[in-house]
Structure formats: C-alpha cells, structure tokens
Amino acid sequence: MAENISFSVALPYEAERISWPQGHESVVVAREHNTLMVAEETPLALIYNGIDYAVMMITPYDIDDFIVGFSFTEDIISSGADLRQIKITAQPDSLRADVRVNAESLRKVLARTRRPIAGRTGCGICGSDMESITNRKICGVIGQEPDANAIHKAFENLRNHQVLNKGIGMLHAAAWCLPNGHIVHMREDVGRHNALDKLIGYGLRHQLDFTQGFCFLTSRCSYEMAAKAVAAGMSAVVSLSAPTALAVRTARAAGLVLISPARTTGMYMVSPAPQDQESI
After folding, report:
1. Boundary residue ending a domain (80, 106, 134)
2. Do 202 and 93 share a domain, yes or no?
C-alpha cells in the first residue's frame, strides 16, 4: 500500500503576475512578482504480476484508491477480492505499483497484447485499441433521478470539499453525494478520469453502495466517464460541463441518469431521453 509514500500535491513557482484594470479604453498593464502554486503530476507505472500494463499521470494522493478503481474500470478485476497485493515504491520523479492479481485477472492482462498504455492526464482511454473501445460491453444500471434541491445543495458545498484544490485551482474532483445532497466522499486529481477512478476505488474498498446517491463531477462528462460510472453501478451522475454525444448515448443505453451541464441557475437532464428537452 501507499501509506508511506510522500509526494507533493503542488509546488510553488515564482511567476510574474500581469494585470490591468477593467473598464478602461487604454489598458495600463501592471506587473508584480508573485508565487503560483502549481499542481504536480507524477508518472505511475502499473505492473500486474510482473507485466508492464500502463503508465498513468496522476496526482500522487489516494494512490491505492486509484489503483483499485483503475483496475476495475479497465476490467482487469471484477471486485476488490481479485487483488492479492499492492506494493508501491517511489523512484526518482515517479512511482511504481506492483499489483498482484488472481489467475482470472492475470488472464485478462495476458490477453491484451497491446503495448503498455501511456496515459495522459487528459484522457482516460489513451493507448486502448479501437476494438476494445467500440466493442466494450456496457452493462445496465437502474437509474434514479436525484432531487433537484439535493443537487443544488451539493453544488453549493462542492468547492469547500475540494481540500487539495484550495490554493491551486486546477484539480478535478469526483464527489459522492447522499440522496439529500450531502457530500460524503471526495477524490481529486489533475486528471478528471483519475479522480473518478479514485472515487470508484474507494467505493470498492469500503463497500460503498453506488445506487444510493449520485456522483458529482467538476469536469465535462465524456464517454469514458459515463462508462466508468456505469461499470461501478452508479445510478446518477451530475457534471458541471456539457457531455459529449457518445456519453449521452452510453448513458441512455445503460439507463444511467445523466445531468449535464449543471449550473447554479439550472441544469439539463440528458439521460434518460425526455419527451421535450427542457432545463430543470
């Protein structure tokens, strides 16, 4: 496990702040030296039973949750019980995770003959072959529409729960909310899909019931975000930014309630398909 691994989540860098007053036709630029906190991203090599599988760029925090969630959403493991051991070691400017899985999970790793995935922070399926994406089996979930007041409550409290993001302003978050809108779990990462994997991993490790409540994402909801939510058995996802068309089709096919984009003034429920599309 990663309890003894210590990497900085953010680092200070000297910068020059350039600003100008608003409402003036002639712009007078002001310059001043300042310190900017910049989010760290660290390469994490994932090795399953000695086989190189992926190198993912992550925020080095809640690493165990990420490994469990990633292993699950990659369909390497079917549950946390398939994991035998996780050993994380720090290397110069990187991390290495040696993961031991059961025989069935190892067969899945061996069946994938592609080269190790180089996962960028902005993409959840980098390195995947086309067939694994287009033929990915999407299971069904029982969608439950969250109460609008609960969503509004979660929206108002979302930023206060982003502990790592305070003073940085560039980390994505995936929050788990109870049906009443109370935020009970929050995971953050420089990669939006990593944040969701961390939340899913936490849920698997602690037997969280993803049918009782909803997931709130601070990012856009693209295909892999919807697919991960469905794989975890979530009944509803709310995201701040708009969804992609493929994400909408994925959610509708699976029965996932998808509300996106969400704003303080209103939101759109794009899945299931409504009779007449209107903002809530």
Report:
1. 134
2. no
Q: How many domains, the chain?
A: 2
Cα-only R_g, the chain: 20
* Catalytic residue list contains 123: yes
pLDDT tens digits, one per residue of 27-52: 678 899 999 999 999 999 999 999 99
Range of the domain at 246: 148-271
pLDDT digits (tens, 9 = 90+) for 190-231: 999 999 999 999 999 999 999 999 999 999 999 999 999 999
Catalytic residue among 123, 139, 215, 221: 123
Q: What is the DSSP string of the chain?
A: --TT----SEEEEEEEEEE--TT-SS---EEEEEEEEEE--EEEEEEETTEEEEEEEE-SSSHHHHHHHHHHHTTS-SSGGGEEEEEEEEETTEEEEEEEE-HHHHHHHHH--SPPEEE-TT-SSTT--HHHHHT---------PPPHHHHHHHHHHHHHH-TTTTTT---EEEEEE-TTS-EEEEEEESSHHHHHHHHHHHHHHTT--TTSSEEEESS-B-HHHHHHHHHTT-SEEEESSPBPHHHHHHHHHHT-EEEEEEETTEEEEEESPPSS--B-
Residues 163 and 263 both lie in one domain? yes
Percent residues over pLDDT 70 in the chain? 85
pTM above 0.90, yes or no: no
Pick from 119, 3, 5: nearest CA to 52: 119
Closest CA to 190 of 210, 162, 215: 162
Task: Check residue 113 and give its pLDDT.
Answer: 53
Residues 160 and 245 in one domain: yes
